[in-house]
Amino acid sequence: MRAVSPVLSLRGVTKRFGGLVAVNGMDFDVAEHEVLGLIGPNGSGKSTTLNLISGALMPTAGTISLRGTPITELPAQDIARRGVSRTFQLVRLLPSMTVLENVKAGAVFGHRRRWGAEADTHAQAMLESVGLGGRGHLRVGQLTYIDTKRVELARCLASDPKVLLLDEWLAGLNPTELEEGIALIRRLRDEGRTVILVEHVMDAIRSLCDRCVVMASGTKIAEGGVSEVLSDPEVIRAYLGDDDA
Amino acid sequence: MRLSSKDWQTLTFATLALAAAACLPFLTAGYWLTIGVTIAMYTVLSTSWALFSGPTHYISLATAAFFGVGAYVVGYGIEHLPYWSLLVIAGVIGAVMAALVGLTTLRLSGVYFVIFTLGLAEFIRQVITWVQNWTGQKGIYVLTSITEAHIYWQLVGLAALVFLTGWLIGRSRLGFALRIIGDDEEVARHSGIRTARAKILLFMVPGAVGAITGAILAPRYVYIEPILAFTPMLSFQVVIMALLGGTGRLWGPIVGVIPFTLLWEAISASFPNQTTLLLGLSFLVIVYLLPRGFVGLIDDIRARAGREALA
Ligand SMILES: Nc1ncnc2c1ncn2[C@@H]1O[C@H](COP(=O)(O)OP(=O)(O)O)[C@@H](O)[C@H]1O
Ligand SMILES: [Mg+2]
Predict the structure, then answer these.
(1) A122/B contact by beta carbon, under 8 A
(2) What is the CA radius of gyration of chain B?
(3) What is the interface pTM, i.e. ipTM, of the complex?
(4) pLDDT (tens digit, 9 = 90+) per residue, B200-247?
(5) Do A95 and B183 touch (CB under 8 A)?
(6) Would you report the helix, strand and coil content of chain A in percent, each value rounded to 5?
(7) Nearest to A54 among B188, B190, B193 (CB)
(8) CA gap A139, A136 in Å, rounded
(9) Looking at residue A243, what is its pLDDT?
């Protein structure tokens, strides 16, 4: 089943901030159409890992490849053009623009590039796909919290990503919103998208992820099927919190 | 390119306004034409400055550097080459200079950029002064038969070109990329925008326009000296006028240029020794009272009127 070459693979990826090793020799693959959960306690290096993949940060050591081609040294814009798209742990929208223009940013630039009416149509379609079809004309300041997250997701989807990196996309949602959020990501999964999901919400991890990689203090401590990983004693110990000094 | 009826309206209005402006030399040849030249000059400089600094929020103080280089291209070249070709050469040199400055500084933060661009004019001025001292020259004469009216018409033509360029950029991918960069550069990069390239391309516009403006104005000075051609006051005045008008719209700066030029004429005639002080004061007043310029004020009033109409 995993004979096909992975969409994304990390080998020995390490990031040091001065004396702190935020990510330490990470190895993992993401297969096509897979939703991979990247989990671990706060400060374990999940966001840093996404920053390394998306080119926001340059690794201190190791290799990151997209479909077998190294992208380790590329700047963020070139990685985005090759089809890696990300959301931010703290939502980042374009404040001076309308909702539709925010999504259009993904449609115009990014992996597949469009312009003019084609870009508008595509942006509108992506906005509809996250349930915001009628909100395109609003300013982003007028949106509720979950809707800002939806716009950010639509912007990513509009760029036709090969890999989608979602950093705690479900964090901060109330219970009703959480349900809607999980349903939305399940749809991405059903569409066959390749996703790395950094998440704390256990229900979401159980119902959405094919596999999980668990990090603690920058290191991978477990990898495998969700239920198997979540019952691993070392993972439980990490989550109980005696590890991340 | 398909044009909407609103686009046609904009283009028609702009053409009529420029045509009307071009009639000024037929009405007056004295004081008001001189004011007209000043207004046209600052319109060109501030509008092209805002094209770059509006969306990127980088404050450029390089105007004097481009302007001075353009003036010196004419100063050194007028004996050897036809005048019009010097305008083209000045534009190319200005654009290349801007590209080089952009390559070296636009990856740095905005603060370094401001200081670098301010230093650039001073640096070139010192180099030219040094070369002139070495050759025993103080300045150079630019003797032509170009009249004040000719200078004015050239500036109006250049203004037309600047407005057209700005209008086209605003409708282009590059223009959209720049708005995104202005809002959030990190989002821009992660959306696949080559941010450094976009900023450098755009910075070449005020580079070329500044140098061409210097070249157009050179015959007016007759005698060019480094201190005159590279005066930092020019850079600051361009920034102040653009901010006064507002950089959010293509027509924003001109709304600042006209009242400021008229006011400045009056002030500098009454207090010739306090101009620098007054320039600094007016800068503070604008930044505190009108952070988005007249354009922002107009937008606010419109928005308020809209809300009251709804209520
Ligand atoms: N830019 C940075 N500079 C210095 N330290 C950082 C930086 N980014 C993250 N860190 C540190 O790296 C560690 C991992 O952080 P992060 O990847 O954000 O964790 P997570 O997303 O798993 O909560 C933390 O100790 C954090 O303080
Ligand atoms: Mg994080």
Answers:
(1) no
(2) 20
(3) 0.92
(4) 999 999 999 999 999 999 999 888 888 889 998 899 999 999 998 888
(5) yes
(6) 40, 25, 35
(7) B190
(8) 8
(9) 44
Show residues of chain B in contact with A85, CB under 8 Å: 190
Cβ–Cβ contact A81 with B under 8 A:
yes
Using the predicted structure, report yes or no on whether residue B311 has a pLDDT greater than 90.
no
A113 contact residues in B (CB cutoff 8 A): 192
Q: Using the atom order of ligand 1, give the atom closest to the CA of residue A23.
A: 14
> In residues, how long is chain A?
245
DSSP alpha helix (H) spans, B23-107: 24-27, 31-56, 63-77, 83-105
Over residues A66-85, the pLDDT tens digits come to: 999 999 999 999 999 999 99
| Candidate of A23, A47, A48, A52 to mutate for ligand 1, largest count of ligand atoms within 8 Å of Cβ | A48
Using DSSP, state whether B16 is helix, strand or coil.
helix
Would you kindly state where each structural domain of chain B is located, as residue ranges?
A: 5-231
Distance, CA of A162 to CA of A144 (rounded, Å): 28
What separation, in Å, do the N-terminal and C-terminal C-alpha atoms of chain A show?
39
User: What pLDDT sits at residue B310?
Assistant: 63
Q: Which residues, numbered 151 to 170 in chain A, qualify as contacts with chain B under a Cβ-Cβ cut-off of 8 Å?
A: 155, 159
Give the global pTM: 0.88
| Closest C-alpha to A186, from A200, A214, A215, A166 | A166
Q: What does the alpha-carbon distance between residue B277 and residue B286 come to, in Å, rounded to a whole number?
A: 14
Nearest to B68 by CA among B235, B194, B296: B235
Residue with token string 């919400």:
A201
Read off the pLDDT of residues B15-58 as tens digits, 9 standing for 90 and up. Answer: 999 999 998 989 888 889 999 999 999 999 999 999 999 888 88
How far is it, in rounded angstroms, from Cα B304 to Cα A112?
A: 41
Residues of A in contact with B189 (CB under 8 A): 55-56, 75-77, 80
State the closest ligand 1 atom to the C-alpha of A198, by its place in the atom list counted from 1: 21
pLDDT at B278 over 90: no
Q: Which atom of ligand 1 is nearest to the CA of A17?
A: 4
